[in-house]
């Protein structure tokens, strides 16, 4: 006898995800649907999904064009805004011949810097007329939320044209003082690189790059930051020093001195963050903050990246810089994170 179709649909699963204040929903064949709560996967008390059921659930959200892309490319990124449910960033991919899905909840309420307890220096950094601000950290560390809060601060206080290039678009801001242009990679533009090249002719004051993925993207971002634009971008790096090394090492050897000089000139700030479980429930961000002071710029220019952490600890009351080790120490001393989490996070610094 043919197995009966599940008694739930994708809307029900997404509503359940939101009901539990989860950040993600995962649908993988031969497994129960699972959601991520405070960084931990939790199985829903539902039947195991088979390939046929996964296909039926997932394909209901796709256009014919998206179906074709998924089947040809074997993966697909997009965002959806479901009425009366919410907004989600979605990735479909194949695993062992079956479609699987990861849904990331996007909070429709635009975050504020105060609301996410962001470092106060960010309010100053977003007033820069030009330069490069980077928000870094592993996947799921809250980078997009932090950037959204920074852009919200600009929107509240400055009359600027903000161009957002993302794959896919996540937070959608309503213009208060700022003018927003959104370019969804794959729909509004073919690639990050093409969108960035075009951006320089679209009269933006601020360019947000959803992810600086490759050498060409980094090269154009540095050029934009040099030529009068404030560029905000994200990278999957774990510290300020690692971020600088990652950018420079992405270029071939003959270009690295020039790129190092460009980074030294343009860097305004780097915020690296990780999310850790709180002892009282929920999660808290541990943050490292680098500010582009003259001393920091000199170290970058002279390729003394290994001295950056030491320099960050000098005159911190004036610069507002902070190392990740200091942030972790503070969270542990204030009993916000457990000893186990503190030791685990500290072991990878």
Give me a quick take on this structure.
The chain has 349 residues and is an alpha/beta fold.
Spell out the CATH superfamily of the largest domain.
P-loop containing nucleotide triphosphate hydrolases
Structural class: alpha/beta
Distance between the termini: 56 Å
Secondary-structure element order, as H and E?
A: HEEEHHEEEHEHEEHEHEHHEEHHHHH
Summed over residues and divided by their number, the pLDDT gives a mean of 94
**Rg, alpha carbons:** 21 Å
The number of distinct structural domains comes to: 2
Which band does the percent of strand residues land in? 15-25%
CATH topology type of the largest domain = Rossmann fold
Measured as a percent range, the helix fraction is 25-40%
How are the strands of the biggest sheet laid out side by side?
9-8-10-11-7-12-13
| CATH architecture annotation of the largest domain | 3-Layer(aba) Sandwich
Q: Number of helix segments?
A: 14
Instruction: Report on the biggest sheet.
Output: 7 strands, mixed
- Class of the largest domain, according to the CATH hierarchy? Alpha Beta
Question: Looking at the structure, what is the overall shape?
Answer: globular
Low confidence ranges? 1-6
Strand tally is: 13
